[in-house]
Please model this.
Amino acid sequence: MYDVVTLGETMVRLTPATPLRLEQALALEVHVGGSESNTAVGLARLGARVCWLSRLTDNPMGKVITNTLRAQGVDTSRVVWTADDRVGLYFLEEGAAPRESRVIYDRKLSAISRMQADELPVDLFRAGGARLLHLTGITLALGEAAYATCARALELAQAAGWKVSFDVNYRGKLWTLEAARTGCERFMQAADVIFLPLRDALNIYGYRNDEDAKAVLDDLGRRYPQATVAMTLGEGGALARRPDGAIAHHPIFQAAAVSRLGRGDAFTAGFLYRWLEAADDIQGALRWGTAMAALKYGITGDMPLVEKAEAQALVERGALGGGIAR
Model:
């Protein structure tokens, strides 16, 4: 039925016009964003069949989220609706150098944080129901109930014969490095594809800051020998390692900076899109991932509202001119 099923929290994001500080703002722009749903949107826009699972409060903010995702081709029909709890919010204050941008979360006791494992659509988790389940460390960090729900989803997906991808996606405002290392372990051990930036590998697993990225990737490959591991390097591009030890690298595509939010999720969407077609082609998966990330860099908001033709052209021809398509 689906290529990818994903589970997680999507929030309403409120942002003042740049470069206003939040304390100056008299009006706030409304966006929708969440790691798993950003990836779902990226995959859907590339043509994949995607279902997003979550628990939302049945109010206008919850409907804003599902309406937005559904408009991008993501199936939200399995969302659990509740009259209780609340929809998570976050505020983004865009910084102008040297002032950093900052995120302020207002997501405590959100509906997804209280989702129970028995609220999962068990009938969906069957052989042929989907090809892959995608999870991230963000949802694991939201509380015991959310963690148990993700763990149950993992068990159901494995029992149904699905592949699993896991994005570490460390958030220091949600849990500690030690908690993340312990909490993510069962998912890292189970995943067929693991995503993490080099900075998370250095911090969570205690590698030296001067450690060579390929050496870090090789060690992660030994820790998780069943998985293809994809590691983003910022301006250095991205690396990937297959379970047989083969490593590929791809540089970034140069892109004008509009919004840094969601680049990692766009990379994940592009990588998975190609990986699901040809798991051994990690060079191609990296190329699709870096292309999607570059295109997202030039799009306002959290979601990678990329046209497949744009991504295809960047993958096939490299840097595009940035002119006007007439």
Observations:
- The chain has a mean pLDDT of 95.
- The first helix runs from residue 35 to 45.
- The first strand starts at residue 2 and ends at 7.
